[in-house]
């Protein structure tokens, strides 16, 4: 068996909508999740996204959609030049917070899914991806498919509980509403420790029993998006 931590960057088909996402804190109500891939053909967005959502060129991460907070934290669209350091960030968070929950098969799938080429392919297909950074350091990342699948949501361990995951999710949902207004639900597969976070964010659990797919264990969740354009889905206001 291939060692899943050998550094291999074997590409996983970038059409597999699964969600790793780890904003893990001691307070279960403030954790994010690691949602594994639903390897079911009807759920896969197969190169139908058309255009990239990142609104700037690859050479400049600046964007009119940047969200810069008072702390200097910036949430902006991810671009192709980010994929290498975003890959390193995601692997580091997974090894620290998620690896123990899954099997070696799950580790290999995760590593392939977040490889730089796979991240770049999904950007080209039009996935909605944002990074949170301060002074050029990646502190969080969120990825949404245009069919409403939340596939990645991670926050660096020493910045858990500071609202970064919430900001990333909010920005992703706002962009989804702009580019795919017909989408009425968002789905995510969350790890057991993340159940409180997703419930708090307005997601509904779809099953009580823990599920497993390709070595990754999860609870499925769904968020019903409001039709009223003024309502903030994440905060419920």
UniProtKB/TrEMBL annotation:
Listed PANTHER family: ACETYLTRANSFERASE, ACETYLTRANSFERASE (GNAT) FAMILY PROTEIN
InterPro entries: Acyl_CoA_acyltransferase, GNAT_dom, N-acetyltrans/Recomb-assoc
Molecular function as annotated in GO: acyltransferase activity, transferring groups other than amino-acyl groups
Domain N-acetyltransferase: 92-228
Domain of life: Bacteria
Alphabetically ordered keywords of this record: Transferase
Organism: Roseospira marina
PROSITE patterns noted in UniProt: GNAT (PS51186)
Protein name per the record: GNAT family N-acetyltransferase
Gene3D superfamilies: 3.40.630.30
